[in-house]
Specification:
alpha+beta; 5-stranded antiparallel β-sheet; EC 1.-.-.-; oxidoreductase; NAD(P)H_nitroreductase; Nitroreductase-like; 17% strand; binds flavin mononucleotide; NADH Oxidase; 38% helix; Putative NAD(P)H nitroreductase
Length: 186
């Protein structure tokens, strides 16, 4: 079967944790963000926004991560958190920004942000850049959320680390379609 460019790009994509400069240039970033804005979006609420963090911003993000550590964290644990945004030349913070709507609950709006973020990541990868979606405790932290200027109703859907692939990670095994698909009623 011949494959469309989009399906090929999806099948070829892999997350890449080992990233270095240069970050995607503005034209590629804008293209990827335009792809994000094509996500399915019930009632066209546009319930997502993105923060672009690079340069000194990565140090500030690291400071926020370190400040989010629990009171009993060791200095080594804080240091690891402080350095984690420096693993890429650019971090995109995906923010679910739900509004109150009679037919679209907040969790559906978060799904739209997740779909947008997957499109964003895929577009960066299709354009030849590496990307890795990360969360962890920092994504739930009030210190980080407030430090990034999120309002009380907003949440962090992910930190997309992006840049030039340094060394490729081994391919992740993918499940067979039959493993996660069944007919209903059987
Ligand atoms: C919402 C979300 C959060 C994730 N958080 C992390 C994370 O904090 N650390 C991590 O190593 N991988 C995380 N991942 C997984 C990686 O982004 C990646 O998908 C995984 O390593 C599999 O690689 P692949 O995308 O090439 O299949 C997360 C994925 C999603 C969708």
């Amino acid at each position: 079967m011949t494959m469309n460019t989009v399906t090929r790009a999806i099948l070829d994509r892999s997350s890449e944790p080992r990233l270095r400069a240069p970050a995607p240039p503005k034209a590629v970033l804008d293209l990827a963000l335009a792809c994000a804005a094509r996500a399915p979006d019930h009632a066209l609420l546009r319930p997502w926004r993105y923060l672009v963090v690079e340069g000194d911003g990565l140090q500030h993000l690291g400071d926020l991560f370190a400040a989010s550590a629990s009171a009993d964290a060791t200095e080594a644990q804080r240091d690891k958190l402080r350095k984690s945004p420096l693993r890429a030349p650019m971090v995109l913070v995906a923010v679910a920004s739900p509004v109150s709507h009679p037919k679209v609950p907040a969790h559906e709006q978060a799904y739209s942000c997740a779909a947008a973020t997957a499109y964003l990541e895929l577009a960066l990868q299709a354009e030849g850049f590496g990307a890795m979606w990360r969360t962890g405790a920092v994504a739930e932290s009030t210190v980080v959320r407030e430090g990034l200027g999120l309002s009380a109703n907003e949440s962090i859907v992910g930190f997309i680390y992006t840049g030039t692939v340094d060394t490729r990670k081994p391919a992740v095994p993918r499940p067979e379609v039959a493993e996660f698909t069944s007919n209903w009623p059987g």
